[in-house]
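The record is kept unedited without comment:

——
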Amino acid sequence: MLFHLYPQSTSSLLNQSLPSCPELAELLSSSNTRSRFKMSAAERQAAFEEARKQMWKPPFDARFPNQNQTRHCWQNYVDYLRCQKIKGEDFAPCEYFKRVYTHLCPGFWVESWDEQRENGCFPAKI
């Protein structure tokens, strides 16, 4: 009944077979799939921890409660630079600010701010 809703040309397209894909067939073969996805508990735990690190997001900051996070991005960029200036470039807690601004800020903003700093026209006091 459903095919009556489609024009004749469309129903003929539905009856065609899909092109073969050797990579897909290899992936779906039972022996390859079983050996590929078999993990020990330790490997599974390590993969889970790595995935958690990659899914990190900045915690809530009460100074920036709104949906627009532009100021949050800007403030963490400036805080990172100030932290590096005061504590030195090797100070590990400064990396928190970097993680936040790299998560929130588009890359072209950061590139633009870096260029402004190099040219001496950056609008913040660091």
Q: What stands out?
A: The chain has seven helices and no strands. The radius of gyration is 26 Å. The longest helix spans residues 70-87. The mean pLDDT is 82.
